[in-house]
């Protein structure tokens, strides 16, 4: 039986790359996202994965994703919380609107929290075997600890995601479920496409010890490492996939 995995935000970028890698490695993957692009459906069919159209902020859609992985693969073993958005408009924190704050926090933090709660309960309801019982990976960001005053709501949401990781890691460790976090750096996705020239210049100017853009596949490989049992004695940890951005250097 394949181990069932739910991946949110799974129609592009990090989410789509994670679905592909996990499916190639033999996991039974159900990817959830709001869009339903024909080209994405074709890829899912090729990979033997299940696509669920839904929104992580909607409770019924979260349940739909859980039922989809259970019906397709007979179980749920892991959750990868990728779904996230940046502010539609970058605004100084003195001008940030409540509407923008609510939108970003609902998807990046509230949706992650309650999706994790739902899947954790489902894993605990399954018969317990030997070895690792389950794994949850939250995709956060270097913005969890890096100030960007033109997108404060995003930074706050990712800092919240880090605490969600720690809280569930604490609660679920005794149940045989590990909960960890990947903090991507500057990754080549649709979200970063609008500021590509800015980051091209920063990378060329020496911002990163590994002087290149990160790719979605770089993050997907970190996710695989955290769910496949090789780090079964690790929980509540943040793995920086950022080209060395977190290194403080003079």
From TrEMBL:
Check the record and name the SUPFAM superfamilies matching this protein. Answer: NAD(P)-binding Rossmann-fold domains
Give start-end of the signal peptide.
none
Q: What InterPro entries does the database record attribute to this sequence?
A: NAD(P)-bd_dom_sf, Sc_DH/Rdtase_CS, SDR_fam
Q: What Gene Ontology molecular-function terms does this entry list?
A: oxidoreductase activity, acting on the CH-OH group of donors, NAD or NADP as acceptor; quinone binding
Q: Which UniProt keywords apply?
A: Oxidoreductase
A Pfam cross-reference name: adh_short_C2
A biological process from GO: bile acid metabolic process
Q: Which PANTHER family match?
A: 3-OXOACYL-[ACYL-CARRIER-PROTEIN] REDUCTASE, SHORT-CHAIN DEHYDROGENASES/REDUCTASES FAMILY MEMBER
* Family of the protein in this entry: Belongs to the short-chain dehydrogenases/reductases (SDR) family.
Spell out the protein name for this chain: 3-ketoacyl-ACP reductase
């Amino acid at each position: 039986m394949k181990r069932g995995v739910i991946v949110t935000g799974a129609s592009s970028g990090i989410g789509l790359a994670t679905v592909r890698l996990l499916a190639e490695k033999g996991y039974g993957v159900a990817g959830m996202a709001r869009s339903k692009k024909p080209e994405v459906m074709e890829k899912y069919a090729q990979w033997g994965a299940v696509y669920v159209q839904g929104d992580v902020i909607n409770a019924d859609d979260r349940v739909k994703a859980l039922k989809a992985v259970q019906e397709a693969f007979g179980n749920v073993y892991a959750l990868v919380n990728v779904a996230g958005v940046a502010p539609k408009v970058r605004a100084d924190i003195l001008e940030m609107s409540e509407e923008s704050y609510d939108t970003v926090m609902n998807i990046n933090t509230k949706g992650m929290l309650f999706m994790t709660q739902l899947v954790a309960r489902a894993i605990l309801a399954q018969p317990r075997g030997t070895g690792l019982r389950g794994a949850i990976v939250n995709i956060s960001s270097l913005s969890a600890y890096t100030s960007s005053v033109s997108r404060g709501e995003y930074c706050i949401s990712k800092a919240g995601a880090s605490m969600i990781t720690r809280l569930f890691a604490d609660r679920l460790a005794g149940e045989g479920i590990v909960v960890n976090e990947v903090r991507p750096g500057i990754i080549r996705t649709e979200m970063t496409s609008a500021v590509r020239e800015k980051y091209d210049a920063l990378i060329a100017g020496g911002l990163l010890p590994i002087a290149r853009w990160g790719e979605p596949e770089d993050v997907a490989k970190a996710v695989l490492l955290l769910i496949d049992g090789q780090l079964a004695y690790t929980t509540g940890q943040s793995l920086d996939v950022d080209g060395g951005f977190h290194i403080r250097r003079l």
